From TrEMBL:
One of its GO terms (biological process) is cytochrome complex assembly. One of its GO terms (molecular function) is oxidoreductase activity. One of its GO terms (cellular component) is cell envelope. InterPro entries: Redoxin, Thioredoxin-like_sf, Thioredoxin_CS, Thioredoxin_domain, Thioredoxin_ResA/DsbE_sf. Keywords: Cytochrome c-type biogenesis, Membrane, Redox-active center, Transmembrane, Transmembrane helix. This is Cytochrome c biogenesis (Thioredoxin). The keyword rRNA-binding does not apply. The chain crosses the membrane at residues 6-26. Its main location: other.
């Protein structure tokens, strides 16, 4: 085969791959868009420190991230949030990372190793993730002080910091 034909085949495969990703992600993107500017689902989740976090009791803006200990993109997003906390852009108690369907001890070990200072909830049953329609991790939801869902996204988001800064200004 000549190089021109190989190049066309590779380009064709790349186009197919990109289209496949877009087609598979599009329903989730549309669903997330429809949830925005609606009342956020209320929930209660046990925190690693043993207390119960109740979402409607906060009375302030909140970043909720659904994550997993094994998820590489989650580690990236949570590290970005930790940096915003470290830089005093947002308070640590305004971030809630919810791990679903994972062992509490594994979650605690991961949080300790990565030195996260934000709130961490353990949704053992997956019920809280279900309320938000989480299909993949990380899924990040921003709730304003009135408990309205202002933005929700799945995966790594280039808009994360901009959206958070806007919520907390």
């Amino acid at each position: 085969m000549n190089k021109a034909l190989i190049g066309k085949i590779v380009n064709g495969l790349l186009v197919v791959a990109v289209l496949w990703v877009l087609i598979n992600r599009l329903p989730g993107v549309i669903e997330n868009f429809r949830k925005q500017n609606q009342p956020a689902p209320s929930f209660a989740v046990p925190l690693l420190d043993g207390t119960l976090f109740e979402s409607e009791e906060t009375g302030k803006a909140l970043v909720v991230v659904f994550w997993a200990t094994w998820c590489g993109p989650c580690e990236v997003e949570l590290s970005r949030l930790q940096k915003l906390i470290d830089d005093k852009v947002i308070p640590a108690d305004s971030v809630l990372a919810v791990s679903s369907l994972e062992d509490r001890h594994l979650v605690q070990k991961t949080v300790d190793q990565r030195r996260y200072s934000f709130l961490v909830g353990v949704d053992i049953s997956g019920q809280v993730a279900g309320l938000y329609g989480v299909r993949a991790t990380p899924t990040t939801a921003l709730l304003d002080k009135n408990h309205q869902l202002t933005w929700i996204t799945t995966g790594l988001s280039p808009l994360l910091e901009v959206k958070i800064r806007g919520l907390f200004k």
